[in-house]
Amino acid sequence: MSAPSRVLTVAGSDSGGGAGIQADLKTMLALGVHGMSVITAVTAQNSLGVQGAWPLPVEAVRAQYRSVVDDIGVQAVKTGMLASAELVEAVAELLGGTDAPAVVDPVGVSKHGDSLLTASALDSVRTKLLPVATVATPNLDEVAQLTGVHVESEDDLRRAAAAVLAYGPRWVVIKGGHLAGDAVDLLTDGSEEHWLRAPRHDNRHTHGTGCTLASAIASELAKGRPVPEAVTTAKEYVTGAIAAGFALGGGIGPVDHGWALRRR
Question: From which residue to which does any coiled coil extend (predicted)?
Answer without folding.
Answer: none
